[in-house]
Design brief:
The strands form 3 sheets. Strands 1, 10, 13, 14, 15, 16, 17 and 18 form an 8-stranded mixed beta sheet that branches. This protein has an 8-stranded parallel beta sheet with strand order 8-7-6-5-4-3-2-9. The protein has 11 helices and 18 strands. The chain is about 30% helix and about 25% strand. The chain binds pyridoxal-5'-phosphate.
Length: about 350
């Protein structure tokens, strides 16, 4: 059997949830959109059931999958609905839709609700992607609050750069938000993603929304010891050979040996979600010791340096996880941990409690 495994440590997921909830205070949504950032939404939500105050997904289809698998906690649709007809399912499944633009608001007000609905009303406090402008927010809030079907409104916004503590953008967004809601009736609010939750105590309000840190990746790329990686992508060396100095390795001959080098071939490639653009030098761990990939990543294989007596056919290679953080690989490949985690696939998913 091909040795590539994607290990998902559900005990780390639960510990991270509790840690983040404690840091944030109040309630915390476990963000399980995009198949729980590649970890498997149903398994992760089931592991957190009874513990998580609620879940958040990107669309109705993702919410349906959770409901069909026995998740009855609140589920927030982070982007709301994509057409008015979806409100019928939102109603039936008791989902909590975000309302972030005018047509979503009007369609919600026009829907013939069978049950009352909790709405997350989104403000664009500066990111300029979705949400009502601060000067339009009160009108949207008032329209919702006058509907007899609306049981509650959570005021929310999303930060554009909470993982960048230098720029002051998060403070500006918080100010814009607080000013725009100052004259509205009190009620629950939600500002924090993972980065804000960890770094901005003033942003911790009634509901946090944790994704990346829940999966154990530090938004500040610093291996925060309070959270533990949930995913470990591991495979094995299945061939090795010794190359003379000045020999090329792999497609495009992008890497040449400088000295006599033992090369291990690992069963993992870009079809498994390992980034093809990861250059020679990107870290891996061979039997727990740091090494590096050399040559180009192919579809099903990649090549690593094995030196001294270390590493042989059968050696375990951690692509990311504990010895090599997913952030390190993402940095080498010019992307972010989010993308790598979401792309992990084709290997055998092995869940441990
Ligand atoms: C995805 C998402 C989150 C989670 O963000 P992380 O950085 O992964 O914690 C929070 N809020 C909204 C609106 C999102 O879309």
């Amino acid at each position: 059997m091909r040795p590539l495994q994607i290990e998902i440590r559900l005990n780390h997921l639960r510990e991270n949830y509790q840690t983040l909830k404690q840091i944030h205070g109040g309630k915390l949504l476990a963000v399980v959109k995009a198949d729980a950032y590649g970890h498997g939404a149903v398994r992760c939500a089931q592991a957190l059931a009874g513990m998580a105050d609620g879940f958040a997904v990107a669309c109705l289809e993702e919410a349906v999958q959770l409901r069909e698998n026995g998740i009855d906690a609140p589920i927030v649709l982070l982007e709301g609905v994509f057409d008015a007809a979806e409100y019928a399912e939102v109603d039936r499944l008791r989902l909590w839709p975000v309302v972030g633009c005018q047509w979503q608001l009007e369609a919600l007000l026009n829907h013939d609700w069978q049950q009352s609905v909790y709405v997350w009303l989104k403000m664009d406090s500066g990111m300029h992607r979705a949400g009502f402008f601060p000067h339009h927010y009160a009108a949207a809030y008032t329209a919702l609050s006058q509907s007899r079907h609306v049981a509650g409104i959570v005021k929310m916004t999303h930060f554009a750069a909470a993982d960048d503590e230098e720029r002051g953008m998060t403070e500006m967004q918080m100010e814009a938000f607080d000013l725009a809601v100052a004259d509205l009736p009190a009620g629950e609010t939600s500002l924090c993603n993972s980065a804000a939750l960890l770094a901005y105590p003033q942003a911790r309000r009634d509901w946090g929304r944790a994704g990346l840190a829940l999966y154990g990746a530090d938004p500040f790329l610093e291996n925060d010891p309070r959270i533990r990686p949930v995913m470990r992508m591991v495979s094995r060396v299945f061939c090795d050979r010794v190359l003379q100095p000045h020999e090329p390795v792999g497609y495009g001959a992008t890497f040449y040996t400088k000295r006599s080098t033992r090369v291990g071939v690992v069963a993992c490639g870009y079809a498994d979600g390992y980034p093809r653009c990861a250059p020679s030098g990107t870290p891996v761990a061979v039997d727990g010791e740091k090494s590096r990939i050399i040559g180009r990543v192919s579809m099903d294989m990649l090549t690593v340096e094995l030196n001294g007596s270390h590493g042989h056919v059968g050696s375990e290679v951690e692509l990311w996880g504990d010895a090599v953080s997913v952030n390190e690989v993402a940095a080498a490949a010019g992307t972010v941990a989010y993308e790598l985690l979401c792309h992990a696939k084709r290997g055998r998913f092995v869940y441990s409690e």
